[in-house]
Amino acid sequence: MELIRNFPDSEILANLRTDNNMAETVKALYRHCFESLSWYIQHNNGSPEDAEDIFQEVLVSFIEMVRNGKFRGESSVKTFLFSLNRYTWLNELKRRGRQKVREEKFENARDTEMPDTSDFIAGRESRNELLKLVGKLGDTCRKILLLFYYENLSMREILDQTDYETEQVVRNKKYKCLKQLEQMIRSEPAIRDNLKNLLHG
């Protein structure tokens, strides 16, 4: 069994600032803090996967804050991480709420709106480029995004065609796939603007 020693806060901060002993420092933070941070998220409408994702995001943010001199040590590292975890998760819940409203508006309107043929033709090149990028995301992301954006299926209909347990899990996965896709889009400036209109229009 791997032994992970505890670090005092002063040593944690010194290691993060200097990149010294980073792997062991991060493991110690995970062992010391993850359980309580994960408990908070899972008792506030989150899943174990959400807890893992948010913890990673919190650690990255914390390391950046330490290196930029924005953490002054006015509280313990664990207390600060808990506050950052809470703030990050509440923002994520707000974002998901807004996204759900947008999706419901789209699903309610799709049966009454006829697609504009000229818009489709004009956007054909962008759609082809988008399909190429989607193909690089992996089978699961490709299936979810194509079912939602190209076949106009609802979250419930997509759930029936996947192995996920709930519509919320499908929404979460679609969001993660979109984030990956948007990162790829940023590296393709020639089609970035058109694809953003296609994804968010």
Structure commentary:
Helices cover 75% and strands 0% of the residues. It is mainly alpha-helical. The chain starts with 8 loop residues before the first helix and ends with a helix. The model is unreliable at 110-122 (pLDDT under 50).
Layout of helices and strands, plus pairs?
Layout: H1 9-18, H2 22-42, H3 48-67, H4 77-109, H5 117-122, H6 124-134, H7 139-150, H8 155-160, H9 167-186, H10 189-200
* Number of DSSP strand runs: 0
**Mean pLDDT across all residues, rounded?**
76
Domain module tally:
2
Shape: elongated
Beta-strand content? under 5%
Structural class determined from secondary elements: mainly alpha
- CATH topology assignment of the largest domain: Rna Polymerase Sigma Factor, Chain: A
Ends apart, CA distance between termini: 52 Å
Helix and strand run: HHHHHHHHHH
CATH superfamily of the largest domain: RNA polymerase sigma factor, region 2, helix turn helix motif
**What is the CATH top level name of the largest domain?**
Mainly Alpha
User: Which residues sit in consecutive blocks of at least 5 with pLDDT less than 50?
Assistant: 110-122
Helix content: over 70%
Task: Please summarize the sheet with the most strands.
Answer: none
Please tell me the CATH architecture of the largest domain by its name. Answer: Orthogonal Bundle
Radius of gyration, in angstroms, nearest whole number: 21 Å
**Total helix count?**
10
